[in-house]
Amino acid sequence: MYQENVEGYSLINEAAFAFGAFLARSKEYQAMSSDKHSARFLNKLKMERVRTMLTHTYPYPHEHSRHAMIAVIMGCLFFISSDNMHTLVEKLDNNFKWWSMYACLLGFFYFFSSPFLGKTIQPSYSTFSRWHVAWILVAALYHLPSFQSMGLDLRMNLSLFLTIYTSSVVFLFVFHIVFIGFWHLGLVSRVARRRPAILTILQNCAVLSIACCIFYSHCGNRAILRQTPLERRRSSNSTWLTKLVQIDELKDQVCSSWFAPVGSASDYPLLSKWVIYGELACNGSCPVTSDEISPIYSLWATFIGLYIANYVVERSTGWALAHPVSVNNYEKLKKQQMKPNFLDMVPWYSGTSADLFKTVFDLLVSVTVFLGRFDMRMMQAAMTKTCDGEERKELLYDHFTDMDDFWFDFMADTGDGGNSSYSVAKLLAQPFINVPLDDDLVSLQRGNVLLIGGDLAYPNPSAFTYEKRLFCPFEYALQPPHWYKNDSISVEKPELPEGVSDLKHYDGPQCFLIPGNHDWFDGLNTFMRYICHKSWLGGWLMPQKKSYFALQLPKGWWVFGLDLALHGDIDVYQFNFFSELVKEKVGKDDGVIIITHEPNWLLDWYWKDDTGKNMRHLICAFLKGRCKLRMAGDLHHYMRHSCTHQSDGPAAHVEHLLVNGCGGAFLHPTHVFSDFSKFYGASYDSKSAYPSFKDSSRIALGNILKFRKKNWQFDFIGGIIYFVLVFSLFPQCKLGHILRDDSFSGHLGSFLGTVWSAFVYITEQSYVSFTGVVMLLVAAIMFVPSKISRKRRMLIGVLHVAAHLTAALILMLLLELGIETCIQHKLLATSGYHTLYQWYKSVENEHFPDPTGLRVRIEQWTFGFYPACIKYLMSAFDIPEVMAVTRTNICREGMESLSRSGAAIYYASVFLYFWVFSTPVVSLVFGSYLYICINWLHIHFDEAFSSLRIANYKSFTRFHIKSDGDLEVFTLGVDKAKECMCLMSPGAKGMEARQRLGFRAKIDGKDESSQKVSKQMVCNNIATRSYQHCKNC
């Protein structure tokens, strides 16, 4: 177990690990000791708890580097604030310009980093964003005047950090290469075969370098001269309390005593030519040269030695494999293993998701190439056996007709977030659920049949999405038979358990599914492979062989599952099968429930369209009032409408309309469809909506507040778009008039005038930016739904692009003004591209003396690579200096003076900062656009709520056919799907499972009867409150 986490620990964790092992040995000694008093004393110390705190807790070793980084930064901030903060306040008290610059800079960087705060560092975009932000923020801050006014010169710390960091990376890479070579020669054990993660080495080197820089800020690189015995006696007379009051003397004592090198260079003759010496700092006469080792070099060598020693011991002796795991860590590991590894909600606005690009490609191919030319439903009809009786056996299932008390469930649109899908699937799997109804406790039995209404996996149908987003949550909710193999293909369905002859004798839950539009993106290939040619969805048996079916239920009830494909209608072969079935099998007093994926009664009303003509002909001309209920998903909310019977109105062809697409996908709004009232000429009233219209409108506000937090991967698209919009405007060489104004109104007027001038330049002279504006305008107009008129679409698109363009222009001018201000105050563009390196070389010999010529020898041995590497690394780090120097050259000599490589470097450096500024703003503007459209214009209902990725408000519908033939309908909703879910034991029964679920229900509606026909339907809307999977999670 420990071997999986052995590699790549940070240096601080290594020391803690060794101490933790010592404590573990102490605990073992305690167990063997016969001294009761000693044992009691060690128990009071709670050694196990201490040891657990010191050993690793997180599964990612990068987390330790983050904690070490935070500790180092906090210590540095404390040092600065305690000594020099008052100087900053005095210097900047009356300088509004610098305060504004700090507020803008830190504000943009904070909003850019806000989605990643509090998340575990992993090798991902969030890790890159952290390092990117730290890099360019420090590179910008050290040029501003605050740190110099506080007495802290960051140039020395930055140059020292880059030098130590480069040396550490090279040294450790050489060490690992040599160590792997020893493993190939057989000189170390097989444990050394595992190679360390490169990212771990880089982060350890960063922590080591920062620690050395912080030590230099506190103690410098002073050579510690040895004291005489008399001096040591005099210094020992002062008490610690006295030193504590005199903080400077205490700091000197810590630097000279606690972190001083052990011995001098004369004590190690063999190493005297391979060390860096300390800077002389003494009172009175000083020796010509120092014989004392540099404390910075000593600290660096100590950390490197600890890393190498720990790595060698772990990999060559297997000591780490024998390290005991604490009880607390074992319990945490056990709980972690019991927690399902579900996928998160699909990031629909991700600019880096390969699944989304594949989804778009599959959709384009399906619509433009195969739609109308190839239909899998036609292929299914061609593969069906020719005999009418055999054909009906593959499409009609009548083995439920003899059951007296029958229950069945309906859900749709599952296979998005694992937690939300599992929350519904676990409720469906319970043997029964007790809910209060009319001051009574009603027991709702698990459905004999589960009906799923399409969109089984998002965003596209594939083996990965079906297995991870559909099968995985259902298998955790209800396990399949032990003899079933997940990778098996069912040749002869149904595959019944041993001892069961046919479906009539199988008493377990069964499942029937229809495909949705997302299942048709690959031409129904994945649906046929995983649904029609597999037998089990978790613990539910899947007998069906085609993508559509008919179920004959007890007491004269029928279920027709229709496949609408991407056409929004049934094909001729489906129409022929169901129409013949109605004429031959369905009685005049029977009731039919039709299941489709799309609720065309709502969508046709919304889009002002007329789809499903074949389906309407089937319902109106063949069923003739026997369709009691139509159910669908596709819209991820719950809504129920019932026909209002009017004496002078037309007869209703469908009694009830029910939409329940809350099986696990993101939430859709309900308030957009609040005005629906007509279908097939009859009038309908809204009986229930979940969430309510008011809550739905309130939830839409999250697009303004949470769009970027939910869709931070949208940065890749938004940042590039904004940069293209202002690409031709860099650099702005004439900004002096903005800075010369004396009043705030004058500054603001000049600024807005410059924004307008930039817009005019784009329209009249720019090529790249003008092309970007035109392409964005076309995309924005096409993005507006076709529901509204063409003029309104163009107006909305123009306003949308105008908001983005204005924001991009303002951000461009703010960036250029910041650079111009620093140039005018001689903070940037003072001595060329290598300013930081030249300054460091000028002070290196003074602060880091090298009497033996070590640096010269290294430069000769590396053929000049050593100083050149650090030189260009410092230049690459100092992005603001590169921007300012290049900008000055362009403004003085023109863009033609730059080479292609120079222009590429300039625009790349500008993009690094502009991307940080633009990504929070583009998300804010786009989120505000979605909020206005969904709440004011009632458009973009799909786009505005898919961005929120809401895993809550989930529900399913449970039906009960009573012995007298009446149909009861119960809808159960889950307000909040918990992220932390503990698996239940397989033997949990109904009431026990219900109690562990913490189930609590509330009645939303009263009983309601349908019209007086032979079949009655009673609808009860039940929504759970404060649902949670396990109270101990």
UniProtKB/TrEMBL annotation:
Q: What InterPro entries does the database record attribute to this sequence? A: Calcineurin-like_PHP, Metallo-depent_PP-like
Q: Which UniProt keywords apply?
A: Membrane, Transmembrane, Transmembrane helix
Domain Calcineurin-like phosphoesterase stretches: 410-611
Taxonomy, superkingdom: Eukaryota
The membrane spanning regions, by residue number, are 68-86, 98-116, 128-144, 164-185, 197-217, 712-731, 743-761, 767-784, 796-815, 904-932
Q: Would you tell me the protein name for this molecule?
A: Calcineurin-like phosphoesterase domain-containing protein
